[in-house]
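Appendix C: a fully annotated inverse folding record. The material below is reproduced so that readers can follow the format used throughout the book. The structure is listed first as tokens, followed by the designed sequence.
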């Protein structure tokens, strides 16, 4: 049952598996977040109970690799200081992300299985651990570069007191669609729109605009030094954009919870913000905080990626 009561998790955990959707038999074609399927959502805790009840191998193929799910109330965001603390937390390196794949694989015992596989991890792990990267990637991610990147990712910001530079870009394209037929072909058009907004306390470089925003050039065209500067620009802009999105989604008065779980024997913990403002939360379409803002976080050329060895 899907409740219309608007106590929705503001999924600022950036933990993708909370955004896993389940189909509803009584609503053909409809899917809902895994934490909203089950009991009526009457409190923030209802989200967690549904999540735990639905965390089964029927819905998550590798659910058995997880254990020790627990959650607890931490505090209410009561003032600007706490608000800024969590704004920095969710835009930093501490939140747990996940890789979600609909795939077919064989487990350690040789049994084959298919479905959604969800594994936890951390963003920008290449900044902290270069194992598995190719030698060309390691040449780009020098020790000096990684120290600068760590400072951007860990320092506390207060964007309310910062002068930010903004850049917005949008373009539309009309493509001709051809449907082949036995006697004749039919033609139609399809419009595509691409938009991008960026904000930074520094000036936004031409390389960032051309390569990351407009996609008119390739990162491979840059020298190693230029590429390192582009990556630092990207990390800073990404973090500021996440903080601006936090301002849009979270309010003073929202509640913070801590979720603890284990994956293959390793323990993780993550904060979650639950928004119980009846006028703001949408129980049917909760947003994953910074999910789109933080994908594809580095512009390392394709031949400088992970090693297959």
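Designed amino acids, in order:
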């Amino acid at each position: 049952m899907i409740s219309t009561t608007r106590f929705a998790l503001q999924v600022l955990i950036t933990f993708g598996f909370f955004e896993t959707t389940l189909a509803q038999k009584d609503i053909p074609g409809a899917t809902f977040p895994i934490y909203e399927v089950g009991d009526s959502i009457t409190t923030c805790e209802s989200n967690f109970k549904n999540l735990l009840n639905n965390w089964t191998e029927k819905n998550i193929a590798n659910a058995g690799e997880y254990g020790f799910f627990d959650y607890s109330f931490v505090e209410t965001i009561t003032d600007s200081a706490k608000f800024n603390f969590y704004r920095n937390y969710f835009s930093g390196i501490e939140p747990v992300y996940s890789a979600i794949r609909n795939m077919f694989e064989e487990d350690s015992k040789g049994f084959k299985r298919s479905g959604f596989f969800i594994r936890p991890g951390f963003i920008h792990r290449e900044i902290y651990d270069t194992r598995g990267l190719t030698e060309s990637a390691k040449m780009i991610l020098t020790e000096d570069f990684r120290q600068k990147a760590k400072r951007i990712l860990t320092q506390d910001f207060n964007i309310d007191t910062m002068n930010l530079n903004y850049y917005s870009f949008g373009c539309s394209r009309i493509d001709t669609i051809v449907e082949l037929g036995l006697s004749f072909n039919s033609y139609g058009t399809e419009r595509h729109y691409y938009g991008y907004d960026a904000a930074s306390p520094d000036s936004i470089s031409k390389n960032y605009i051309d390569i990351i925003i407009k996609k008119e050039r390739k990162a491979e065209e840059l020298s190693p030094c230029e590429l390192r500067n582009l990556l630092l620009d990207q990390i800073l802009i990404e973090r500021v954009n996440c903080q601006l999105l936090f301002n849009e989604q979270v309010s003073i008065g929202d509640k913070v919870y801590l979720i603890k779980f284990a994956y293959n024997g390793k323990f993780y913990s993550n904060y979650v913000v639950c928004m119980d403002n009846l006028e703001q939360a949408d129980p049917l379409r909760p947003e994953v905080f910074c999910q789109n803002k933080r994908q594809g976080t580095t512009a390392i050329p394709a031949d400088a990626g992970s090693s297959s060895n």
